[in-house]
Amino acid sequence: MPRRQRDRTLRVDPIKCEGHALCIEAFPEMITRDPWNYPVLNPLPIPDHLLRHAEHAVKVCPVLALRIVTGDRDRDRERK
Amino acid sequence: MDSTVIWYTGQATGIVTLVLFSLVMVLGISVRRQVRLPGLPRLAAVALHRSISLLAVAFLAVHILTAVIDSYVDISLLAVVVPFSSSYEPLWIGLGAVALDLILAVVITSLLRARIGRRTWRAVHWLAYACWPVAIVHGITLGSGTGHPMTGWPLWLTIACVAVVLAAVAQRVATGRRALTPADILAAAPARSAAAREYATSASVGTHEGVRR
């Protein structure tokens, strides 16, 4: 599936993440649990009707490790 | 407005604020990684911690407003925020002002948490542990509303709040500060480690069946 400019995807900072797993409780539609209680993110764009839940998951992270990135530009900037 | 109404409102909102902030303390102390309060999902505990603290601030605002409006004793707006500047009971009103300043610091940094970063937020958030005892002393010393220390059921309510918060602190200290690392989990639970091995060897890592577009 081609990525569109406005697509929003979930991104976790693996250094910050401590496995509190609150995002998994908040947004099980796209975040699942690995055996160590850490999140596994669905890499696909967040469907519009689930965006509210995604934003909630970002808010409940106690260590600010989860965020929503928009489009390809973010992706490219991170790689540098 | 009738002075008696103002007085009762001030007393009542003070007591409600005490109970709400004690609840906020217990939720904040108890909820952490891999631990939760019985019968309460951690997500709900975090949500309650946040929303109850904002509710408590609303009650606190009414509590402070009535104290300023009440003309029976003279408490200026300045005395509300500047500790120990009150002409009436400077020490005990001053403790209330200290508690208010600390609460404002904690609440404002929490609202700006995403901007100021986790480290700064956490450092300021520890002030809650200083704020709550100060507020308790303010309540006990002025809680009768007559200039005398608190008596009767409000005192017992305060003691109950203190006991519950201390119990939460004791429970947290007793169960240790260090959260489990993945290695601990593997070592401690054979069933879980079997699941982990299965996970590591499975081909389905990183795929999601749930959401497709």
What does this structure look like?
The complex is a heterodimer of chains A (80) and B (213). Helix content of chain A is 30%, strand content 20%. Chain A is of the alpha+beta class and 80 residues long. Chain A has one domain: Alpha-Beta Plaits, CATH 3.30.70.20. In chain A, the strands form 2 sheets. Chain A has a two-stranded antiparallel ribbon with strand order 1-4. In chain A, strand 2 (31-33) and strand 3 form a beta hairpin. The radius of gyration of chain A is 12 Å and the shape is globular. Helix content of chain B is 71%, strand content 0%. The longest helix of chain B is centred in the N-terminal third of the chain and has 28 residues, at 3-30. The N and C termini of chain B lie far apart (60 Å). Classes of the chains: A alpha+beta (80), B mainly alpha (213). Chains A and B meet through helix 1 of A and helix 2 and helix 10 of B.
Give a brief rundown of this model:
The complex is a heterodimer of chains A (80) and B (213). Chain A has helices at 22-26, 51-60, 71-79; strands at residues 8-12, 31-33, 39-41, 66-70.
